[in-house]
Amino acid sequence: MSDKQEPNGKASATNITDQERDLAQQALAEYEKKNYKSCLEHLQRIEETRPNDPKVLLNKAIVEFYESGLCTADKFQKSFIDVCKQVELNLEQLDSLEDVENCIYYYNYAVFLYHLKHYTKALAMINKVYSFIESLEESLAHKVCLLIVQLHIDTNKHAEALKLITYIESQFVSTDNATNILTGSADQGGPIHAETEKTEKKANLDAATDAFRVSLIQYRVRSLMELNLFDECSQQLNTIKEKQDSITMFLIGKLEYLRGNHKEALAILKEIPVKDDFIETGECSSVLINNNVACLYHYAKKPTLSFTSIYKAIVQHQKNIVDVTKPTQAEGSLSGQPLHIIGASIKTELMFNLGISLLHARKPEEAFDCLIEAVQTYHMNPRLWLRLAECCIMTHKKSNDRDFDFKKPYIEGVVGSGKHRKIILKSQLFPDTKYSCEAVSASIPMPSLEFGSLCIRNAVLLIQNDTIDCSPSHTPINTPHKDYLFGCIQSAGAYIALCLGDPVVALKYSQELLKSDKINKVHKFLGHLYAAEALILSDKPNEAIDMLKESNAFDDIEPEIHEQLRTEQWKPDKQKSAKAVLYYNLAVALTLRGDLDKAGELLKQIWLSKIEHVSVPVHVVILALYIHLRLGQKEIAITLIKQNCPQAKR
Description:
The chain is mainly alpha-helical. The protein is 64% helix and 1% strand. It contains 30 helices and two strands. The chain has helices at 18-32, 36-49, 54-67, 73-86, 103-115, 119-130, 138-154, 158-173, 175-183, 195-226, 230-238, 246-258, 262-271, 278-281, 285-299, 303-324, 339-344, 347-360, 364-374, 382-396, 449-462, 479-499, 503-515, 521-537, 541-550, 559-567, 575-593, 596-611, 619-630, 634-644, and strands spanning 411-415, 422-425. Strands 1-2 form a two-stranded antiparallel sheet. The longest helix has 32 residues, at 195-226. The chain is elongated and about 120 Å long. The relative contact order is 0.05.
């Protein structure tokens, strides 16, 4: 957790005796050997003569915490706060830190908060400690520097992290400067060390400084990646490539992934050695590798392989958690698991990735179960609420393919024979497209349209914030992505409202969508279609016709939107098919207004496009039958039935 403050520092009450100094040195030696029981015995002997020394009490609390395997976090937190009260420190009031000697208390508590993932609070505390950085002992200063950079990255303050790293390197990575701090210079005075002792310290310093330098470079690469400065990332990684440690290899693999070089990234991941050091570090390389491989499969449009890899990662992670969890009689929600394991648990992030993979694999019910667990932690993420709504939509209707399948039978049955033979058409092509009439509570988490509408409302509220929480992703949502997300949310909200038979809400979502001049052409087209349908349901066919005439079916659609339609498996997926859907909706509106001739002409245009292998909605046939029968064109209606209904030929 932190360096144990050596008990032979400045005494809080009286001078330290030689015996106490020896005990303190022995305790420190045992602590460094991880012989915590023996270390605790030495500290207890010191405590007998110095019962109110806060440094002794702090060290005792830390050693007891380590002896428990870091599994009694609640007890340690209480003991730690009691020690702080003794020295009149209020950890909630950062201005109370005025003495450099008290920095160790704030540093330890900042580490404690970091492991509990209270990053904002921990950052405020370590910022206060950092103001004393030049007066801190070297090893503690290094730890403070690494923690403050880590917390800036965890709070998405990457530009500030880069500035910090540059300053820290100038102050602490210079070997000459660091040597003076550790061994003492002639200007500082102090005891004259033997040459062998100074040489040994110099060698240890060089190794520590080099490790510190590599860590700073790795942090710099992480920040540069989030700022999309990939060329600078490559330059930095080239300086530490020879190290070939797992962290550097993960960073190299991620850089290739971000550049779109998925094969190169996969090759690098396969070279990373698998280490089982979860108990010591809280991280398992096999879990991280499987998760990263899943991300590569996801962007390679292989969702089945993606969720298979993610599932392996979850199983391994859960096994690791069970292995380190100890039964304990200590009370408190934080007891039972080592502190660093509590903070290192990535089950929620893995469940989020698994949910996204399952959604893309068209398994919405399973995806919903995963994402509903993730949203309990990341409830401020509007994109996550949208994904839950998409699970509800896909559960209701997996795709539009059947709407364009002309093999779908239109006939319910045939009665009679000969000239008395009668054909019974289906009253509804797709029974499950009826509006929901069951009493389903929107507050119950289940993949229903009612709950989906609640998810959309949450997303609408959250996307209005100036700063959008995109957790668990570290990449902030920029303006173009925010505009696209806005279009997705509004169009999904309109669709759900229409399915629930609520045209007022659907029209509201559609109008909000069409007000924006930054949405792409696909969402704008959907906005016109949904708004027109809402107006028709509100018995306003004239307004619906005007709305549909405003849409140009993205005649000037950009090439990248064509690619989006193809890769995301939208239906309709071509401009002409979209125009056919538009004309069909317009024909429906005209029919409701009584303009049957105009509606018939539109249907002819749609049918001619079908000859050109353009996908058109199957509802066209039913609407054409209705119009021909209303116009008294019985023979044409019969011919249409024979052409499209095989049962009619029998």
